[in-house]
Amino acid sequence: MSARLDSEYRARAVNSIGDTEIDVLVIGGVVGAGAALDAAVGRQQVVGISVLRRFRRW
Q: For the chain, which has fewer Cβ within 10 Å, the N-terminal or C-terminal residue?
């Protein structure tokens, strides 16, 4: 995954939400990361994470 967090990257990532079916959307920090990990690895769901105006799809 890219480490870029500039406004162009964020805009593309947020726009991709509409193009992707997401099973779980986690909004939060450390606790949310644990929930996302459990959903993605343990339950094999497609997870989106939003933290401080950033979005990442796993």
A: N
